[in-house]
Amino acid sequence: MLATAVLAAASGAALALDTYSTKVLRHTVLETCDLIQPLGLTQLHRGIQSPTDTLEESVPRQNKLSLAEIELNEPVGTQVFVQVFGGSEAAVATRLASLCPNGVRHKNLREAPAAAATIRKIVDSGDPKNRIDVVFMGDGYTASEQTRFFDDIQRLTNDMFTGNTFAQYLPLFNVWAAHVPSAQSGIGVGGQPRDTAFGLYRDGTELRGVYTTKPDVARSVCAQTGPNACDFPSLI
Q: Does the keyword Oxidoreductase apply (predicted)?
């Protein structure tokens, strides 16, 4: 009985091990990285079982390069977003150093937007530390269109979790809506963004393929939801 209790306590301790993470944009040819998310505590990760454990998740960059990046003449398809997880800050920092031997640049970290976002929690299923948090941020909604924005997000959320497929998973999710007023309504077309909070635009007039010119602003707004609450930032 005592052995069982000790084993249960040990298992509980393992599950409660803090997880640390950082996120970078890795330039595989240059072997440098741009810091996207500073090193800090994050949601618990079941793959991290000891202070020395690390693992990473990688996603190829798909959004367009800026003009400044194009001028660097870096080969297309050689940039990868990498999030490193670990059981301690030291373990994450060591792994990051091996991924970015030529250094980590902080140029992607900028000041928060001047206009703070108005944030509402549309679905509250629990602590973000053990939930999947989706943050919707609408572009091209002016100050007078704030009510319309929150109505749109409520309708979108209802549509996402209606039906047998996803309704059962709703208790695992938190859903947030963040409104930053845009000077102009709508988003840009023909490759030209309007004066909006996140600078979204389409290459032509087609509905698919929407790009942003202000990813740093989006990251800052998403972070305003609080610790561990920016798992899936979504610009609409």
A: no
pTM, full prediction: 0.73
| Residue-wise pLDDT tens digits, 171-219 | 999 999 999 999 999 999 888 899 999 999 988 767 777 888 888 899 8
User: Six-digit token pair at 106?
Assistant: 């902080």
State the residue range of the domain holding 81: 19-105
Taking alpha carbons only, the member of 65, 83, 69 closest to residue 22 is: 83
Dihedral (C-alpha) 84, 85, 87, 92: value to the nearest 10 degrees? Answer: 10
- What three-state secondary structure class fits 152? helix
Domain termination site, one of 105, 133, 152: 105
Instruction: Write out the two tokens for 19.
Output: 């997880």
The reply to whether 111 falls in a domain is: no
Q: What is the pLDDT of residues 53-62, one digit of tens each?
A: 999 999 998 7
